Amino acid sequence: MLTPPYLKKGDKVGIVCTARKVDRDDLEEGIALLEACGLEPVLGKTIGASDHQYGGSDALRAADLQAMLDDEEINAIWCAKGGYGTVRIIDEINFYKFIKYPKWIIGYSDVTVLHSQIHKLGFETIHGVMPVGIGRNTAVAKQTLENAWFGKPVHYHIESAPLNRLGTAKGELVGGNISILYSLCGSHSAIDTTNKILFLEDLDEYLYHVDRMMVNLKRNGMLRNIRGLVVGGLTSMHDNSTPFGKTAQEIVMDAVEEYDYPVCFDFPAGHLKDNRALILGRSASLEVNERGAKLYFDQLE
């Protein structure tokens, strides 16, 4: 995939709501991070807008994102918050100018819609912390985001997890939130996982929902021909009064049990305080051994 230009001091970063509503006050710590990095924040018209749960109407959110994509002075777009709503506007977005003048799209959770759509166009994106709530994220998580958007090396060594499956893999890292990937199946935004390393994370789901989604990804062929699997946070999961009988991690492992590629659990990315940046669409090397796991992204100039 193609790499958008890395950020440099003085560049402008647009902040928009593609999903849940956000007030200006919610962005103070995110704005402070940008300014500390020598970047200039530019707030979109959706900041402070409200339409029930959304950051303004579908039309306003689509227009705001479109304006940021088309503005050649905006060097990156940092989605303010996740939640739900990006899929409601994605078909209204014209990426013609983005293809000519690409820029980094940054976020996670519901922003998986944008990651998936833009990967279909052949460009890398950044899965990482967002401005709202960034004060709760670790210093490491924030530093990895800076490393990613400034083009510094992004390498990870993590501890071993009980369900890990050993092995090595090389391929583009793609994926994101399981619920979103599941919801995109059958649409033109659904990603092709063939010969790629798949990353998965999720939050606040019932265990049987996780099983339903993993079975659907499997039936859609998204788990069959991947080269490796990286599983991030499976956070705040719920069970019914009659227990499902497996943890979220066990559900994921059950879905890929028949395959032989390496699997890494408990990777620090997703709905976690230590939500480390991932360059989605970038070729990466994965090694899972008895001591832990390594994920190295290719370093591109």
From TrEMBL:
Which InterPro entries does the record associate with it? Carboxypeptidase_A_C_sf (IPR027461), Class_I_gatase-like (IPR029062), LdcA_N (IPR027478), Peptidase_S66_N (IPR040449), Peptidase_S66C (IPR040921), S66_fam (IPR003507)
Q: Among the record's GO biological process terms, what is one?
A: proteolysis
Give the LD-carboxypeptidase N-terminal domain ranges: 13-128
The leader peptide range reads: none
Q: Which Pfam families match?
A: Peptidase_S66, Peptidase_S66C
Domain LD-carboxypeptidase C-terminal as annotated: residue spans: 170-286
Q: Does the keyword Iron-sulfur belong to this entry?
A: no
Task: State if Hydrolase is listed as a keyword.
Answer: yes
Superkingdom of this entry's organism?
Answer: Bacteria
Key words of the record: Carboxypeptidase, Hydrolase, Protease, Serine protease
Q: Where is the active site?
A: 109 (nucleophile), 201 (charge relay system), 271 (charge relay system)
User: A GO molecular-function term, please?
Assistant: carboxypeptidase activity
Membership in a protein family: Belongs to the peptidase S66 family.
Q: What is this protein called?
A: Putative carboxypeptidase
This chain's source organism reads Leeuwenhoekiella blandensis (strain CECT 7118 / CCUG 51940 / KCTC 22103 / MED217)
Q: What is the lineage of its organism?
A: Bacteria, Pseudomonadati, Bacteroidota, Flavobacteriia, Flavobacteriales
